[in-house]
Design goal:
Length: 618
Amino acid sequence: MNSVLSSEGLAKLEALHNSHVMNLVERYVDLCKPSKVTVITDDKREIEYIRQLALDDKEETKLKTLGHTIHYDGYYDLARDVGNTAILLPLGQRLSRGINWKEREAGLKEITTLLDGAMKGKTCVIRFFCLGPTNSRFSISALQITDSVYVAHSEDILYRVGYEQFKKLNGSDGFFTFLHSAGELDERNCTKNTDKRRIFIDYTDKKVYSVNNQYAGNSVGLKKLALRLAIYKANQEDWLAEHMLLMGVRSERTKRVTYFTGAFPSACGKTSTAMIPGQTIVGDDIAYLREDAEGNARAVNIESGIFGIIADVNPVDDPLIYRALTTPRELIFSNVLVADGVPYWLGMGRDDIPKNGLNHSGDWSEGRRDTEGNVISLSHPNARYTMRLNELENLDPRVNDVDGVIVHGILYGGRDSDTNVPIYETLSWKHGVYIGATIESETTTATIGKTGVRTLNPMSNADFLTVPLGTYISNHIAFGTKLRNCPKVFATNYFLKSSGKYCNQKVDKKIWLLWAEGRIHGEYEAVKTPTGCLPRYDDLRVLFRQIFNRDYSEKDYLLQFSIRVDKLLEKSVRMEEYYRSEQGLPGEFWDEHNRLKIELEALKREARVPEVPPSFFR
């Protein structure tokens, strides 16, 4: 290693007084065989060097707006590779169905072979980051080893620096490690051998190995790859690592701020909820939750930036994000159209989008097709932007609070056109866990395959689980049960339809959220039903008038908040079919399932109508 590592770099590693770090760096440098090793600390000049190196190595290119750059992934490297992402599972351990895994020893042998010499002719960058605020009981140190300067630059934007934090480990191995190589590159500086792309998670050893890819969902280790390691750690230590937004909800009347977390599968309203006007954002993607000494649930955003889908970000629906994307600041676009140094993307709300330019396919003109005959869109549907959270005008002032914020409410957001009401409060913590475990999202015309197909996604975390589902659900129940001040749990569905049209406007989610905030503080009574507690019409009518100066009719209320008994019983059957074969589910899960089923069947017999209005329960 000494032949490719300068004395200055070696001194930086030695200053950590951590033999585990030294051994890992030496082992992986010897394996990957880079021509040079660069060690980066928290020094701003060194971080600026990485930013410039991304340009010099042509992994990024400057755009016309100051601070903006563009990065392109390969045409076949534009999304998370679910099929080639696997948990390395020791002999004798098991995971739930649907979680991709490989036998650990065989997986380590395969990935080691692929990484052997993968960095030849390239610079290996050694980075140190912190998941969560530094100097906090939430902090988890992370070591990143990569030959992609784009990955290193992205992590500078997305995460807190962590070199000094590593010194506080006092030589222990209490950190996550991420080894990544983009592998051999083509003439566009994109990964060449994507057929040999592999992303393996070894939770036993707190490591992630990733090779032959550049798309950040596969290469930026601290994102969803670290979430998988954290989920395993959390389930051993009785806290929660969740795919959740974290936001402050501000009462219009009292001006108090109440903090919510929220889990929403893709296309179920997560980003639009986090960015509701008048509210503050702590984080949009991943949260850690722990109990404090007073019995509260406290949460932090483990990130300090956003790696967001840019499609459909426009000045009408997303004014804050759109303004940030079109004004000077440090920001990386990926896989969008660029013409004359200006980025363009799908759904941005402009009529003057060029008919040709450079995009994820190379030189592009309208109507161009790929080798399989598919029309290439101007920007990839999964194109992204990477920017710091502090670039947003609605950033919450407690975003870096080392103690986290007290969570009073949890949102579980699904998507269906014909079953669930826009919002309701669950009857208890255990009922809330059941609702989170049974989140469904319905496919739309924007999704490949048939429309109207419901996909189960427990807590919106199904893709990232590294423990059996029964263990994960049990940990949720235990976490809330031990709290003296347990958060209230709410379920949302912004996509209910009638006669093919949505039953509410996009902006109405602000009303549902403010009602939930008021419920937490005892300001609103509710209509108790077998499925949960519904808003009262008079309370919503007042809120609509106060917030939007708009009438809210009783007809709309009945359309939105009637209990669709038959549809809910159909969902009950789907849940029973799915979970029947799942081992290790806690008894509380089945208690809630059976209670709900029995009470819905009784309601159907008593009401004798498929849709039961809220007035029936008074």
